[in-house]
Amino acid sequence: MWENAAPTPPPQHGSPSSGRRRRVSQSDGDYVIWGQLLLSLAFLALVLLAQMMDLPFLPALRTAFREAMMPEQNTFLSENRELSKFTEQAVQTLANTVQKFMPTQSQTATPETAVRQTHAKAQQVPSGAREESYLPSFAICFPLAGRACTETSGYGWRTDPMGGSGSDFHLGNDLAAEEGTAILAAADGVVRCAGVHSSYGRYVRILHANGDETLYAHMQYLFVHTGQRISAGDCLGTVGDTGNATGPHLHFELLHKGIRYDPSEALQNAA
């Protein structure tokens, strides 16, 4: 065995055997480097597979690797076990990277995202509504004089503002404004309805061209009546908090052929 082999005296400087031994040492170093790279790549591939498939054998792989680094392997790997240290560090780095860039759903889901995902799976958009925006083919006026308002609730799913335990699909945009602010017609048309509703309070619904409609709710006063022809910019009434409202604001809806759409883009482009 290697332990019983007679020791070889060190070669003298300048002797022919000295150069040969240096060349052999360099070749052995190359083998060690290539061996480290190949084994590390193979091991890291197994670790990546375990992470991607959520398999619980990563600890077993690491245990098997440590067992492989027994003293008798030093003839190939070196006494400092550089391969073991390198691969162990690479495994830890890879595990941290995978966890960072491939997080689980519970780590990434915000409360708002979770609510929207729940609605998407368990509930559907109400009949007569769509989630996308719609732009009328004609220009519209902003429905509040001087644009003196603040949007307090957008179109779509939201927590019930009336204190309910669940949530609802909001069919328009809420624009908070001072009570008594003039509400203006968004475009030319005919008043289809001007009256009182249990939820809308005092409201006006106007029919425009191409089957488009606008609706104005929670009004303090109504200045128009059903069947009246109006022009863009005409005053329909004033901002109030009638119906189901938590404060003075205009609830504005946009419909196309009886279907409600998100009016946000239309309001942004309004003159």
Structure description:
This protein has helices spanning 16-52, 58-68, 74-77, 82-101, 105-108, 111-122, 264-268, and strands spanning 129-133, 150-153, 156-159, 167-170, 173-176, 182-184, 189-197, 201-207, 212-222, 229-230, 235-239, 249-256, 259-262. It is 34% helix and 26% strand. The protein folds into two domains: 11-101; 130-268, Glucose Permease (Domain IIA) (Distorted Sandwich). Strands 1, 2, 5, 6, 7, 8, 9, 10, 11, 12 and 13 form an eleven-stranded mixed β-sheet that branches. The radius of gyration is 37 Å and the shape is elongated. Residues 1-6, 14-22, 69-82 and 101-117 have low confidence and may be disordered. It is built from seven helices and 13 strands. The chain is α+β, with helices and mostly antiparallel strands and 271 residues long.
Quick rundown:
The chain is of the alpha+beta class and 271 residues long. It has helices at residues 16-52, 58-68, 74-77, 82-101, 105-108, 111-122, 264-268, and strands at residues 129-133, 150-153, 156-159, 167-170, 173-176, 182-184, 189-197, 201-207, 212-222, 229-230, 235-239, 249-256, 259-262.
